[in-house]
């Protein structure tokens, strides 16, 4: 590949830890224009989609990588089934979780455990290990690209990639056949497709540190969301017991979730990462990098999805402030999609004290 146009020490490169929105728009406007002017000069024979698929056939993903990822995806699915049947449901029955939340609890607990482990390891790699300066100096990502050659993949980044790629493959299956069906389930399916495409293209073209940084900036909010839901699912029991500490913790986690979404996904992701890729990548990545434009477009699409999902959070905050009700996942169509029983009937059963038995509840996807 052709070496980068500039290097990190060039005074023309705008290098900061975190930029601002106005500067980001200006820099990206200039870099995208420069990229378009340069593109057909360095790749005069490029024709979409033919050249794209030719480039795709040349990416460096071994059979071992493919077998490992798909094998781990099957493993995640099997482990989740075992976790649900042998751990989550017995805990839900033992704790006396009401029917309204009984079938949401296993999914929530599974995701909490996964994201706690995944983001915990990612936090160690990016912040505690001291090996990478991506968070404090995002443009340092491009130091290894100075020669124009694909840098080697370190073992910790490889672990993040393999496990996350396998989890997203599992999640596509889970969205269709295992998870509660929600208003944004098709958007979630599209998100998983975008995430898989980003992981595959970035791994095959050597942009793995960039991809691991994206995952670091996103997974913590998923963890906080599941912590919030777990608290609200378990604060009231079928024996009429009420745990105020879980109610308080649920509200605390909800506030942290909204705050972290704002900071990590709507502030640091664009002002650290999109600044690093959409702006700096044009000048500091190899000039003929085959997937730079495709990856950049998908990264921007991911930001648009972050904004889309934030509207659910804002609507939830407004509803809580107006009504004083608990935060609830307003992406769900209704409780019938969860328990197979309409909400009004569930209220009647609750009034009659008949929500103690959960064995007959079943999940039906809303249509």
UniProtKB/TrEMBL annotation:
UniProt record, GO biological process: ceramide biosynthetic process
Subcellular location: Membrane
SMART domains, alphabetized: TLC
Pathway: Lipid metabolism; sphingolipid metabolism; Sphingolipid metabolism
Primary residence: membrane
Cellular-component GO terms for this entry: membrane
Pfam families hit by this protein: TRAM_LAG1_CLN8
Topology term for the membrane: Multi-pass membrane protein
Keywords linked to the UniProt accession: Membrane, Transmembrane, Transmembrane helix
Domain TLC: 118-322
Molecular function in Gene Ontology: sphingosine N-acyltransferase activity
Residues annotated as transmembrane: 61-79, 112-129, 157-177, 242-262, 291-310
Name of the molecule in the record: TLC domain-containing protein
């Amino acid at each position: 590949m052709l070496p980068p146009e500039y290097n990190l020490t060039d005074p023309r490169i705008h290098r900061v830890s975190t930029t601002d929105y106005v500067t980001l728009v200006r820099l990206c406007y200039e870099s995208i224009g420069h990229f378009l002017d340069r593109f057909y000069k360095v790749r005069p024979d490029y024709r979409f989609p033919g050249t794209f698929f030719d480039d795709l056939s040349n990416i460096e993903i071994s059979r071992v990588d493919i077998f490992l990822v798909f094998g781990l995806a099957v493993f995640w699915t099997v482990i989740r089934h075992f976790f649900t049947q042998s751990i989550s449901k017995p805990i839900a029955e033992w704790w006396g979780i009401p029917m309204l939340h009984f079938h949401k609890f296993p999914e929530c607990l599974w995701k909490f455990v996964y994201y706690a482990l995944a983001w915990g390891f990612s936090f160690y790699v990016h912040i505690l290990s001291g090996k990478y300066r991506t968070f404090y100096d995002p443009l340092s990502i491009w130091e290894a690209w100075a020669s124009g050659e694909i840098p080697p993949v370190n073992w910790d980044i490889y672990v993040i990639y393999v496990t996350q790629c396998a989890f997203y493959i599992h999640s596509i299956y889970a969205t269709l056949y295992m998870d509660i069906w929600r208003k944004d389930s098709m958007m979630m399916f599209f998100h998983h497709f975008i995430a898989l495409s980003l992981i595959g293209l970035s791994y095959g073209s050597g942009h793995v540190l960039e991809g691991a940084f994206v995952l670091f900036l996103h997974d913590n909010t998923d963890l906080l969301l599941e912590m919030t839901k777990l608290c609200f699912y378990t604060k009231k029991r079928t024996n009429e017991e009420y745990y105020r500490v879980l109610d308080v913790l649920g509200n605390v986690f909800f506030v942290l979730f909204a705050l972290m979404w704002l900071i990590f996904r709507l502030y640091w992701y664009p002002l650290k990462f999109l600044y690093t890729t959409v702006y700096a990548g044009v000048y500091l990545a190899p000039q003929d990098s085959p997937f730079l434009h495709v990856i950049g477009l998908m990264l921007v699409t991911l930001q648009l999805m972050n904004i889309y999902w934030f509207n659910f959070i804002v609507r939830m905050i407004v509803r809580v402030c107006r009504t004083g009700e608990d935060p609830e996942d307003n992406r769900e169509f209704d409780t019938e999609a969860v328990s197979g029983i309409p909400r009004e009937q569930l209220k009647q059963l609750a009034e009659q004290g008949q929500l103690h038995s959960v064995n007959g509840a079943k999940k039906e996807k809303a249509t």
